Amino acid sequence: MHTLDAVEVDGVELTYRVWGRREAPPVLLLAGLGADGTDWLGIAPELARALRVFALDLRGHGASDWPGDYALERLRDDVAGFLAALGLPRVSVVGHSYGGVVGYLLAQRYPGLVERLVIEDAPPLVPQDPPLEVPPRPEGRLAFDWAVKTQFIEQRNAPDPRWVEDMAAITAPTLVIGGGPDSPMPQELLADMAGRIPDCRLVTIDAGHLVHEKRPEEFLAVVRPFLEAGE
Hints:
Structural class: alpha/beta
Strand order of the largest sheet: 1-2-4-3-5-6-7-8
Shape: globular
Radius of gyration: 16 Å
Helix content: 25-40%
Order of helices and strands: EEEHEHEHEHHEHEHH
Distance between the termini: 23 Å
Number of strands: 8
Largest sheet: 8 strands, mixed
């Protein structure tokens, strides 16, 4: 069982789900673009055996507010504000894809907040040549603001070069999980990123991009002992 709650950060209401004992060490789960906290329903209860698990709907996603401004720096600072609002001075962070980018930007900018970091198939952002094009918006109602997609593609095309340079500023022990050859994400960039982070291990699970969804048991077999080692 889990609870659903919300907190306001700089005028933006953020919704989150919680599992586990209140006194257990906290871990924050950040889903990929277009997904929300429900993305972790298959993983969170297992992690909650030893950890206090928080799954956040990032701004523009799910039941959180859709304010229209989705610069990655805003999402990074949302997470820092979220932790402050909940009185969590230090947490482990698990981020998939887009959520992994937010996670490593948080660990760069606010290293004191991050106990341990798991980056699931989220390579460093490098300039795209040719530039990526924004696909047409799908028909019907979406579970996220389409502006999230358009603004993320803009930042992917011309990312801040410091985001790669500052991988060296991450002080948290870090686990990078790659999805292997079936993932659309360049696995060589994951290897490069792992080499830039001072205390980092790279593990490949041949599941494609959705590692925790397609291979949950293998994902948990790697992630659970890594997170629980920080207790």
